[in-house]
Amino acid sequence: QVQLQESGPGLVKPSQTLSLTCTVSGGSISSGGYYWSWIRQHPGKGLEWIGYIYYSGSTYYNPSLKSRVTISVDTSKNQFSLKLSSVTAADTAVYYCATQVRWNPFEYNYWGQGTLVTVSS
Amino acid sequence: DIQMTQSPSSLSASVGDRVTITCQASQDISNYLNWYQQKPGKAPKLLIYDASNLETGVPSRFSGSGSGTDFTFTISSLQPEDIATYYCQQYDNLPPTFGQGTKVEIK
Question: Is the Cβ of A5 closer than 8 Å to some Cβ of chain B?
Fold first, then answer.
């Protein structure tokens, strides 16, 4: 059973870079076949897909965030990370990491518990 | 991006009632649609994949149907533990997008 756990600062100042890490247990990122995603949820709102990474390092980002997003993977630590630059209050959200069970990289069976990131000075 | 429109945005029903939520895509997405349940303070949980397939371990009172642009999610007999917000999600086109959610409450 794969488990995901987000970690990182809960408060980020405007214009700075938001950095989060997702630690994977119960499975190996480098085993292949799975895509590792970030999804966020603004307070009281719906879900927004941020992007994903494959263990090889290939990525795809939501075009709406692409200029500010970097997702990276550290297979030695079984972790993947999210960086979002030049944040504003509009980036305040609960950030989830997620992955799939079957072949479909957009079918999220496993989720972290989510971490609230507030952008404020 | 493909827009997903759910209706209603909220509903109130009695225990045992049949509950139906609809999700409309802004263009044809075949059957590339998932349904999730999210309880307050928790991560979403996958209930239905590929429009009509019940995820392992999910009670059979949950079901999904549809293809193309129009989809339906049904709870055949509402239970108290079904109180949650339900989201549809398309993955036919990138980026995957979600509906705005339907909040289900007990009357």
Answer: no
Question: Using H for helix, E for strand and C for coil, what is the string for A18-41?
Answer: EEEEEEEECCCHHHCCCEEEEEEE
Give strand pairing partners of A94: A41, A116
- Distance from the Cα of B43 to chain A's closest Cα (Å) equals 6
pLDDT in tens, A60-116: 999 999 999 999 999 999 999 999 999 999 999 999 999 998 889 999 999 999 999
- CB distance A100 to A107 below 8 Å: yes
- Are the Cβ atoms of B44 and A49 closer than 8 angstroms? no
Provide, rounded to the nearest whole percent, the portion of chain B with pLDDT above 70. 100
DSSP A31-96: GSS-EEEEEEE-TTS-EEEEEEEETTS-EEE-TTTTTTEEEEEETTTTEEEEEE-S--GGG-EEEE
